[in-house]
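step: validate -> pass
step: tokenize input -> pass
step: predict -> running
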Amino acid sequence: MEDSGALIVATNFRELGSTGVHTHFYQVAGYVEQFGTRVSVVTPFSWARPLTYPAFGPRLALYRLWPSASVVWYRHWHEVFLRRALRRELATAGDCVVYAQGPLEARAALRARTGPGQRVVLAVHFRTSQADEYAEPGRELSRDGRVFQAIRQVERDVIPRVDRIVYVTNWARDALVSWLPEADSVPSTVISNFVAPLAEPPSVEPLADLVTAGRLDDRKNHRFLLEVLRRAADAGHRLTLDIYGEGPLRRDLRRQIASLGLDGQVRLRGVRRDLRHLLPGYKAYVHAAYAETASLAIIEAMAAGLPIVAGGIGPIAELVEDGAEARFWPLDDPAKAADILVRMMTSELERSAASAAAKMRFHRDYDASVLGPRIRSFLLSARLSAAAGAAKVTEKS
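step: predict -> pass
step: emit ->
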């Protein structure tokens, strides 16, 4: 069925990037465009780009001097610029769906839309609340601070007013509703992240034994991975690891690699936009994050047929099954984790079975051809319900 409507993705990120949020909305966009839906991505940088430098730049100085103020500055100016960009876009868009990638983006869309025919659908990528993410150890906010409470208040005001919500895991839905029960009254669906399979499996030379991808910060727990490799090496198993991503812990991780004697075993590979094409060059994907909403990196690894070794935290346990395509390891016991990893990596039979299970799980649950129709139908029905409502109003008048 052709659909001549429009989908406007609203995000506070730059248009191009390597985050899971980028992968999510570009996979959605790529799928719905096949059916005639016009897609545009609107960011704060879509409006008066030269002014973004003086508006956004002071945040870095504030971060060093007053971290909570840097959060306020970032959120305020990104929303201001995004709202103006959306106002310009929506002025001529007619009936459409604005797919907001967070609560601030949703508020900007609600304020910018020209009428009820422009529906606002919120994607929940955050864990419990965006305030909680800023309040993780080593981050900018304290849980008893005014800024933390202000962010939660924004979410209390905005989320119940959006037209629909897309959750990427059941865990994400439950976490939000646990403190904001009003969210449960908004029409919603749970649709996992997904990716389109590679057209042709690329031929890649072996790169290393293990691979992981993610921002180099405390939440991703790369230090744990290094401890596991050290324990495995002490037991006589030298496993190599490539780490993709950038972040504030790069220097600390370099020091840890050297102090553990892992030079030559572990490489920090930075950000690679072609990572999906490199994944077949590895034997397994390892994941040590202790806080997630979902993990597109794990889904992309399964698409490449890689077995998964990860902590069995709530959202990860939804994505993979321990003993099938995945092995769950404890995130507080490097020695036991090393035993689990080595057992799989030294048994070709076990690793091959997990690889086959990973491919099967991907094609069953996370292939764009499986989930694309569901999210397209959900987004399209939001727009059609608005059109039907407008028609009823016209008939009554």
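step: describe -> Residues 389-397 have pLDDT under 50 and may be disordered.
step: cleanup -> pass
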